[in-house]
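Exercise 7. Predict the joint structure of the components listed below.
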Amino acid sequence: MTRADGRSFDEMRSIKLTRNFITHPEGSVLIEIGNTKVICNATVEDTVPPFLKGSGSGWITAEYSMLPRATGTRNQRDISKLRQNARSVEIQRLIGRALRMAVDLNKLGERSVIIDCDVIQADGGTRAASISGGFVALYDALGKLTDSGVIKDFPIINHISAVSVGIVEGEHVLDLDYSEDSTAFADVNVVMNEKGMIAEIQGTGEHALFSGSDLSKLIMLAEKGNSAIVEQQKKALCL
Amino acid sequence: MTRADGRSFDEMRSIKLTRNFITHPEGSVLIEIGNTKVICNATVEDTVPPFLKGSGSGWITAEYSMLPRATGTRNQRDISKLRQNARSVEIQRLIGRALRMAVDLNKLGERSVIIDCDVIQADGGTRAASISGGFVALYDALGKLTDSGVIKDFPIINHISAVSVGIVEGEHVLDLDYSEDSTAFADVNVVMNEKGMIAEIQGTGEHALFSGSDLSKLIMLAEKGNSAIVEQQKKALCL
Amino acid sequence: MTRADGRSFDEMRSIKLTRNFITHPEGSVLIEIGNTKVICNATVEDTVPPFLKGSGSGWITAEYSMLPRATGTRNQRDISKLRQNARSVEIQRLIGRALRMAVDLNKLGERSVIIDCDVIQADGGTRAASISGGFVALYDALGKLTDSGVIKDFPIINHISAVSVGIVEGEHVLDLDYSEDSTAFADVNVVMNEKGMIAEIQGTGEHALFSGSDLSKLIMLAEKGNSAIVEQQKKALCL
Amino acid sequence: MTRADGRSFDEMRSIKLTRNFITHPEGSVLIEIGNTKVICNATVEDTVPPFLKGSGSGWITAEYSMLPRATGTRNQRDISKLRQNARSVEIQRLIGRALRMAVDLNKLGERSVIIDCDVIQADGGTRAASISGGFVALYDALGKLTDSGVIKDFPIINHISAVSVGIVEGEHVLDLDYSEDSTAFADVNVVMNEKGMIAEIQGTGEHALFSGSDLSKLIMLAEKGNSAIVEQQKKALCL
Amino acid sequence: MTRADGRSFDEMRSIKLTRNFITHPEGSVLIEIGNTKVICNATVEDTVPPFLKGSGSGWITAEYSMLPRATGTRNQRDISKLRQNARSVEIQRLIGRALRMAVDLNKLGERSVIIDCDVIQADGGTRAASISGGFVALYDALGKLTDSGVIKDFPIINHISAVSVGIVEGEHVLDLDYSEDSTAFADVNVVMNEKGMIAEIQGTGEHALFSGSDLSKLIMLAEKGNSAIVEQQKKALCL
Amino acid sequence: MTRADGRSFDEMRSIKLTRNFITHPEGSVLIEIGNTKVICNATVEDTVPPFLKGSGSGWITAEYSMLPRATGTRNQRDISKLRQNARSVEIQRLIGRALRMAVDLNKLGERSVIIDCDVIQADGGTRAASISGGFVALYDALGKLTDSGVIKDFPIINHISAVSVGIVEGEHVLDLDYSEDSTAFADVNVVMNEKGMIAEIQGTGEHALFSGSDLSKLIMLAEKGNSAIVEQQKKALCL
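Solution:
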C-alpha cells in the first residue's frame, strides 16, 4: 500500500496555525491540517454552569459544527432539522473533555471559556484538528486574562493536542485523510499532552476488530503525530 | 462630521472577492467589504420545492448565518435556542429574492441553487455583502452547469449587487460600517442590477423618519456603490 | 387595465376600524381593509427585554399570525411544524419597528406593549392593515396607561399607518388586493406618519426590476393612501 | 346562591351562531355562548391519516387554539414555547372524538375534514362551544361535498352538541361561565346527540368528589342544555 | 359473549403491587394489572409551579410515558418527533388531577411530588393502573416526608384508585384488556376514593353512543373494581 | 484501598440476564450488573436508513435512555427540554457501533434491528450493561428471524460484550460502580468479542492523564471482565 498523497505511514500532513484569524474573539485560530480547515474561536464569559456556582472553579466547553458545504455533498443545518447532528454532539463533548485537561479550573476561577470549532473545509481528522487548534485559541484567551490581571496565575497545566491513527489496508498509519478514514479497519483518535500522556482515547473497529497489540502500535504512532503538532503549536505561540 | 476611517460620504470600503475559496461547493466566494467577511457557497441540487414540481422552472434560495463570534459578543447558535434567529430569517429571505432576480428560472430547469452565506466576521453591511458575494458564487455554479451541458443557455439575466446607504449625523452616506449603522437615523439596503434598476429596497428610519427626497438621494448613492461592486464582481469573474 | 373591483388606480378599498372588539385586551381593534380582516390586540406588560433593563426605556413589539383558513387553502399552524412561518417572522419584525416609531419609549418607561395581529381573513395588504390597526390598539392601550396615571405624558409622537403600492400591468396602483398582489411587477409597503414622512419602506421587484422614478411615483401614491387611513384612524379615535 | 348574571340554575346563556363567518373555508361559523366567542372553520382535504389509507374510510379531526388575549392575561403563543399547550391538546382530542361520532366515516370516503376552533374571547365553556359550533361548520362542509356530488350520501348520522354542567356552591347548574367554572366543585362536559345519548363525558371533581347520584342529576341538566343548543343549530342550518 | 381470559363481566384481572421497586425514588411501585405493567416513581422536590409561589400550598403532578416496545409495534420516542405524544399529554393531565384529589395540598406545604408513570408492558388500562400504582408511590413518598418531620401532618385525605369499564358486545364489563378495549362500544375510566365517590370520569362512546342508564351501570361496576384495587393497595401498604 | 462492596480489583459485580422480560419485542432482556438494571428490547423493522436502500445490507441501531428516577436525583425527560441528553446521544452511538460489529449486515438483508436500552436503575456501567444485554436481545431477535426462515443464515459473527475499567485511587480496577466512577482518575469502556479482540474503546482521563502502559493493564482487566460476561450471556442463551 502507498498513500494517495505519497506520505509515509508515520507522516503527518502539513500543519498550519493562523493566530488572530478573526478580530472579535479573545482567542482565534485557523488550523489547517492538509485540506482540513477549522476556525477555532475562544470566548471568555463570566458565568459557570449551575453545578459549579459557588465552587470557585471555572469551566471549559466546546461547540463543534460544520458549514453545510464543508463536505462533498451539502448537509442541512442543524436548525433546519431542529436537532443537533448526533456526530457533532459526540465530537464537541470530546473536545470539551480534552481541553478541560489542559487547564487548572480552580486557577481559572468562576468563569467559562467556550471554544467554537467551525469546520469550513473537511478532509478527515476534523475532531483532532479542532482540539489542536482549540488549544491555541484557549491559550491565547487565557493569556489575555492573565496579562490583564483578571486571573493571577496562568492556568495552563497540560499542552494538549490530538491526532487520528488507524489501520488502513493492514498498515498502521498516522493522520488519516477522508479517503483513508472511510476505508479504515480501525480509526482511533488520541488526545495527549506534550509528554505523550493520554487525556482521551476513542477507537472504533469500523470494519474489523483489532487487538491490544494493534492498539499499542497505534498509541506509539499517535505519540509521534502529537509531538509534531505540539512543535507547531509552540512555534505559533512563540514558546 | 468625518467618517472614522476617513472615507468620503460617497465612498465604499475596500471590496475583495476570492473565488474558489472552499473546494467542495459548485461555487465558493469569500467576500470582504472592509472588515466584514462572508463565505458564500453555492450548491446545486436536482430538486425543487413542492410548488414548482412539474413546472419546468428552477429555484434559487439562500441561508444566512453568523459564526457565534462574528460579532463583539458571542451569540448562541440557533440550535441552542431551537429557533432560527429572526434577523437571519429576514435577511435570508431578502438574499433569496434578490438572487432570484438574477436568473431566468425557466432556463435553469427543475433544479435548485442554494446560496449559503456564513458571516465569519461582521462590521456592518453583512446582508449586502452576502448578496454581492452570493451572486458571484451563483454565477460560478451556473457556469459549471452550462459548461458541462446540464443546462443549455447560461441563465443569468441580471447582474445583481447590493449596498447599504443611510443618514448618519444628518449626512447621506454610502456603505455604513457597524459603528455608523448603530447610530444611523435611517438605514436603507438597496439591491440593484448593473443598470441601476432596483430589485429590492428595505429602508428603516431607525431613530427618525425620513422624507421622499432623502430617499431619492440615498438611491443615487446606492447606484454609485453598486456600480463599484459590479466592477469588482466582473473583475473577479474575468468578464 | 381596469381593476377587478372598479377602483381607480389611486383609490383605497373601504377602511373600517372597530375599537374594543375583544373585551380583555388593553387595546383591541378589528381592522377591515376591503375583505382583509385583522384583529389587533394590545397588551401592556410590566417588563422589558433584557437589553433595556435599567435603561428607563420601554419597548413595543408585535406578533403576527394567520388563522389556518384566513386563506384559500389551509396553512398548517406554526406549532405543527415547530417553527414560525418565515414570512410571519419578517412581517412581525416590520410591524414592531413601525409601531416603535410611533412612541417616545422613554415616556413609556420600563414597560412593554405587545401588539398581537391575528389575520382572520386575508385578501392582500395584511401587513399594512396590521400596522394601521395596531396603531389604534396601541393608542388605546397607551391612553389607558396615561388616564390611570401609570405614565405621566401620553407618549405617542407619530401617527403611524401603512399601505401597499405596486406596479400592476404597467400601472402604478394603490392598495393591492390579493389578485393584484400575486401578479404585481413590484410590491412596495410604505409606513408613514401623518405628515407623509417615511418610517419604513420595503419594496420588491417581484417579476421585474423598477427604477428610482417608479419608486418616487409609488411613494406619492402611498402618501395619498396613508392620508386616507389616518383620517379613518382619527375618526375611530374621535380625534 | 344566585348566579351573577341572574340566570336560573338550569338556564343556558344566549346562543348565537353566525354561518359563513369567514369566506374561504368550506364551513365557517362564529359561535357565541354568552361572552365566549369561537371561530369554527371546516376544511376538506383529499387525504387521510396513514392508518386509514386504502380503508375507504374518512376522518374528522380538530385543532383548538386561543388567541393570546382571549383571556384576562396574555398567554404566550404555542410557537414561542415550541410546544402545544397541554390543555389545548386535551381539548382538541375531545372535539375530534365528539365530531367523529356525528359522521358515517365510510360515506365520507377517503377524505378528511379538519375543524379549526380558534377562541377569540373566552368566558368559560370554550370546549363545549367549539363542539357545538364545529358541528355546524362540519355540517356545511359536508353539505357542499354532497351538493357538488363529490360524495353520494350526506354522511351526518348524529346531531352533536356539547355543554358544561357542574356543582357550584352546592347547586347543580347548567352552562358555567368563567367565574363559576373557577370555583366549581365539579365540572363536567357532556357531548350528546339530538336524542340525549352520550357521545363523550369528561368530569372532574375540581375541589371535591361527587357521587353517582350527583352525576345523574348533571346528565339531566346537560340534556336540557344540549337540547337548547340543538334547537339553535337547527335554526341556523334552516332545518 | 365470554371473555377471552374466562373472567366474569364484573371481575378484575389479577392485581399485583411491588413497593420499593427502584431504590432511588422517594416512592417506587411496580403495578401489574394482568399483563399491564407500570413503574410508578414518586419524587419530592422543594419547589412549586410559579402560580403557587408564596401560597403555602404544594402541588402533585404526573408524567406518563410508554417504553417504545410496551406495545405490539414499536412507537418512536417523543424526542424523535420533538413533540410529546398527544395521548400521553391527555393521560398525564388525568393522573395529575386524580392524585391531587388524594392530598391536602396545604398540609404538603410549598413542595411538589412528581409521579412518573412509565409503562413497560401494555395490555389495556394503563392510565387506570398508573393512577392506582401512583397513589401507592405517592403514599410512600408522603410517609417519608412525615416520618422525617419535614411535614407535620400526613396529608392524604382520599384513598384514590382507578379502573376502566365499558360496553363490549352489548355487555357492561369491568377492567377491559387491550383486545376488549379496541372493540368496545364505550370506554369509561372512573377514578374514585375508597368510599366510591367520583374524583374524575372520562367516557367515550367509541363506536356507538350510550345512555345515562348505561352510565349508571358502568359506575356501579367501577365501584366494584375500585374497591378490589383499594383492598390490594391497603394490603401492599400494610394498612 | 479496598472496594466498598469488598470486591477484589479484578472482580465483576454479579451479572444477571433475564430473557423474554417483556412479551411484545422480538428480543427482550433485563440485564442486572450489581445494582445497575437495564431493559434491552430488540425490534425488527423491514426498512433501512436511506443510505442503505438498494444495497442488500441491513442495519443495527440503538437508542439509550434513563427513566427520570434511575438516578439519585430526578432528571427531566428529554421531551421536556426538546433536546436529547447529549450523554445519551454519545452512548447510543457507541451501543449501535458495538452491536453492528456483532452482525454480518449482508446476511441480515435490507432490514433493521433497533435495540432500545432503557435504564431503570443506575449504579455505574450503564453503557457497558446496555451493550452486553443488548447483544442477547439482538441474538434472540435474529434467532427468530432465522428460525422463521425470513433470513437464511444466522448472521451473528462476533459475540459482543462490554465492561468499564478504570484507575481508582491509583489502582487498576474492573467494573466500576457509581461511587468509584465519580472519583476515578481514568474511566475506560472496552467492547470486545469472545476472543478478546477490541471492537471499540473509549477512555477518558477524568481527573488525570494516563500512560500507554496504564492502558495496556486496563485492556487486560477488560478482557477478564468481558470473558465473565460472555460466560453469562452464553448460559442465558443456552449455548
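Discussion. The longest strand of chain E covers residues 36-45.
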